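Troubleshooting log. The previous run stalled partway through. Resubmitting the same four chains, unchanged.
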Amino acid sequence: MIYFNNDYAEGCHEKVLQALAETNLIQTPGYGEDAYCRRAAEKIRALCAAPEAAVHFLVGGTQTNFTVIDAALRPHQGALCAVTGHIHVHETGAVEATGHKVLTVPSADGKITAAQVAEVVKAHRADSSFEHMVQPKLVYISNPTELGTLYSLAELEELSQTCRELGLYLFLDGARLGYGLMAKGNDVTLPDIARLCDVFYIGGTKVGALFGEAVVIPNAALAEDFRYLIKQHGGMLAKGRLLGVQFDTLMTDNLYFDIAAHADRLADKLRQTFEELHVPFLVPGVTNQLFPILPDAVLDKLSEHFVFCEQQRVDETHRAVRFCTSWATRPEDLEALCEALCQLKVES
Amino acid sequence: MIYFNNDYAEGCHEKVLQALAETNLIQTPGYGEDAYCRRAAEKIRALCAAPEAAVHFLVGGTQTNFTVIDAALRPHQGALCAVTGHIHVHETGAVEATGHKVLTVPSADGKITAAQVAEVVKAHRADSSFEHMVQPKLVYISNPTELGTLYSLAELEELSQTCRELGLYLFLDGARLGYGLMAKGNDVTLPDIARLCDVFYIGGTKVGALFGEAVVIPNAALAEDFRYLIKQHGGMLAKGRLLGVQFDTLMTDNLYFDIAAHADRLADKLRQTFEELHVPFLVPGVTNQLFPILPDAVLDKLSEHFVFCEQQRVDETHRAVRFCTSWATRPEDLEALCEALCQLKVES
Amino acid sequence: MIYFNNDYAEGCHEKVLQALAETNLIQTPGYGEDAYCRRAAEKIRALCAAPEAAVHFLVGGTQTNFTVIDAALRPHQGALCAVTGHIHVHETGAVEATGHKVLTVPSADGKITAAQVAEVVKAHRADSSFEHMVQPKLVYISNPTELGTLYSLAELEELSQTCRELGLYLFLDGARLGYGLMAKGNDVTLPDIARLCDVFYIGGTKVGALFGEAVVIPNAALAEDFRYLIKQHGGMLAKGRLLGVQFDTLMTDNLYFDIAAHADRLADKLRQTFEELHVPFLVPGVTNQLFPILPDAVLDKLSEHFVFCEQQRVDETHRAVRFCTSWATRPEDLEALCEALCQLKVES
Amino acid sequence: MIYFNNDYAEGCHEKVLQALAETNLIQTPGYGEDAYCRRAAEKIRALCAAPEAAVHFLVGGTQTNFTVIDAALRPHQGALCAVTGHIHVHETGAVEATGHKVLTVPSADGKITAAQVAEVVKAHRADSSFEHMVQPKLVYISNPTELGTLYSLAELEELSQTCRELGLYLFLDGARLGYGLMAKGNDVTLPDIARLCDVFYIGGTKVGALFGEAVVIPNAALAEDFRYLIKQHGGMLAKGRLLGVQFDTLMTDNLYFDIAAHADRLADKLRQTFEELHVPFLVPGVTNQLFPILPDAVLDKLSEHFVFCEQQRVDETHRAVRFCTSWATRPEDLEALCEALCQLKVES
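Second attempt completed without errors. Output:
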């Protein structure tokens, strides 16, 4: 069986593993106050052109999301996101467990628009009983989104401007950020994100690390006392250096970006194959996640050799599924998948 | 100005006031452990034909909702309700502040069906990553709903059976229960509710009391240690006897039901007036809340003498608004409203 | 039986009841946005010489404590209080239920000193792993304390100065504030409290109201969005006017202060009786709560006619108990108690 | 500089690293549903002689503590521990952040006795206003404790029996369990712990793993839906196999126990050195943590070459400090420390 069901089926990139091995017996201070963390943070600040930004390393995505949101909000405030947002759907109510409601707006492609944000906030403020409703205070977006789509620079600029005008924070979940930054047609850079967001993170777990997310906080108001929050929410590793070593390696010699580009290239090839076979997509995508709509019969056949992810039923005989490439995907495996698709299609 | 905007614009029924005055200087134990509370609880158990049910008195509806839900759920469990549910829309995230997500299903009339509950629960259990999502464990319904509609006995039976089969609790918010029980066409009784729900409350604030909600817990599993929860959530009055005295009075000589019937009768008359004038309704209603759709011009005129509640814009020239009658509504005021409507209609 | 066990055994002062009756059928807006609340708030601001302070009315003490503390703190911050503090001991963990730790310092008399606060904060900041501990951010004091003692103006000035120097909020729980303000020897005024505290409340439940606490927030930073917090925490009465009417009455013609002085005078007389009988006290007190240490035999006899409150065992044959007077205590009942004490003492 | 300040200054044991490397590119399902986790759990169940126990792997100690406690308690219930307990002192209020109060009893040696538990629970139940106080429901102990002391089997039996009689859960934090199990004089085994506790964990972070704690839940009532809780609290690694691989390795061929014994042997040697030099201890200890009381002058000298941990000032010229050995401590470094101590002592 070859796995295309997600981008976290393997361990980590060999260079990351090597760095962990090389530093393994070096003694360091605990809890992220070591030289590796400092160096990784320095590199990230440089890559983001954000010399004043705070940088912290947490273990996983859900943890990062609820820690950031809980740090940013007062009790009566909520996070606004697309109805497909990871915090709304797939984190077992972790944000609500910190006491905050997740407010949603409809979305077909996983994105949220500046206009939607403005409409929600204005409607809230115009309501005569606004104090009986949760106050929208933070906008949560994922880039790439849960559906593999990307914000354009123009969209991000507009969202950011709207948030600032309305006094909301903009938080970008970058669990798959590398795959977004390196995607064909992407026009958003790390310095753009650091300039336009109040807080965001660069995902490691899905892009070459064993685990780890690098939180960048350009807005100083959100950075205060953040380490207390990490500790309280269980995100402060005794051996914090593990995160520093990993991100230090990933942010050296363009590694993070190169391995993300690898995944995007393979996904691109897979997309072309689908297109040539006239397979429609649930949403158009340019990153490492593709959501083709295929006949049940084809999927049954495919599943004899390949693992993919169920997304949703489309009609009585078709389902949308997810195929993921990753930093670890072997070109020959992708090749095998494309061939299988071509053969199946002919048969069907 | 005459107020029809809600059912809590006045204080309390004169008999309630009188009882408070008569008992005012009698010394009693605090925190609801007095004879008045015991007597009121006894009467409620009798009216509900639920001799084993626990009965507690809390101060207000939001408080009651989050106390009951927090008492019933484990951290990873959520409350399921109609998208119009009061806990979802109008309680400033009080349920989420206790750590629990509110899950919603669509609803045009404020109600939720057994089929919807079953679908949500089955979809949850069938999902391969169900542990990444909040577990639906309690169904929250309002009766009457926020839109003034009522569950039929058949609907309630079906909901209850579905909840029991699936291992969910059924919680009925009865903030306006009196108006529902006495409404024309209602076929649900207090014993029905006590038999079919795990926990519910009989609203006092909107039906003749100064304040107060009587929580009835037929399901013994939900009753354990409930007083701790009341205290922790700020619902335990030092002078708990105030709640006992009020409910004791309301539950004596049918007072609660008579005054609710009064409001329903006046609402019925208002509805007939609207119907005669061919005014459509946002939703059909038989209780003390009516949601007619009227031209802006008519509403502007009306608002010179009457206060009502904005509900939603329907089209460019029409809005749905809410008119409420209550135990305190004076027949002559209702008469004046009907006359004004007839005159305006003629003019318009 | 005559009750001296607490100061909430009766309903409310007759003038309060009369005001509730007189306004009962007047229609007002809900949720505390009525003219009575505005007027009561105005009077309180004037009495506090704090024209800019926000004033809100909540239902009870526990509710007020956790609402204020939750409004003031970020997730990693805690409230510091005496080990005897009501929030630490007698609120079923209501503050912790909002996510915040209660930090304590030892106290023999219910009070906390500026030096203790400074020591805790300095130790926290000096600790190399301070981020692993809850950050003290708010000092909670009760005045009178749970043991009936009072802060002097000098003590309060010093506490306030220390808090301001260290960046902590000072929150005064005034559940029995009236009894403190009118006590013999008290040198603290409402304007002093408004000047020295960031937030405090004037208790109504124990001083003549049916229920209700008036929160005063001189520190504008703590006032922002406070109504959302009240709603979320279940403290916003639909008929908010009930609180306005009560406080409006209590703050008119010195009523609140006169009835508190009545209780203090009776307590004073009782204290003199104890002193004449050479009965020692657990703590010296000047307000309406007294904590005499009496032989078990005497207490057994007393309990045939009087109800008092158990405080703690002192030795094998003596217990400390609590006697409370209140705005409602009848002079003849106090007289009876004093006589019984004199007779018992003679006998014993 | 040689570090003796803690037991998490290095990465992981070489065999653990090797296993991570060997399995690095193998594709597995995510979120702990892989074969490594299953195998590690199987081995742990066997070692604990608890074939029915649930076993889960979490990332760190604080996370494990608040996840277990939040899973076990209803909102009004609290965790009882020694005043030195890690959850009370060093987790930034993480337990309180889930809404639960930490209740404490005094302790000089880090341990809590069955008699203390019984006393707290009986006092709670005997109090007439018990519902105004947090209900003790879970006893949290650490073994070894934060002061390096150990529970004897007799003490643990008694604690367990008391908890069961009183209806409380017993939760053992085994962050350093290996060092305890292998300590000279220890008479407690893993099967004992599994038999006597409702839930406990076997710490990996401090005993040879990069990170990770293995939670064992012999009490089935606490195991229900535990994976939801892990996910909600941020403890579910996408690459859960990392935890499985590590614990699988540690639990193979006695590795975990051998490396713990290594640390204990070195600590034993250090203790003997202190004893020969007549250096007193803050508490007597047999595990890998020692708390000697030394003159400031000696500590100043020592700190030129060795890193240790400040514990507390004892008198004007002496401080208690902590020295830790670990699975990674090199015998020659321990030798160097002992020699330095002997020389300094002669000089002083």
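Takeaways: The longest strand of chain A covers residues 135-142. The two ends of chain A are 22 Å apart (CA to CA).
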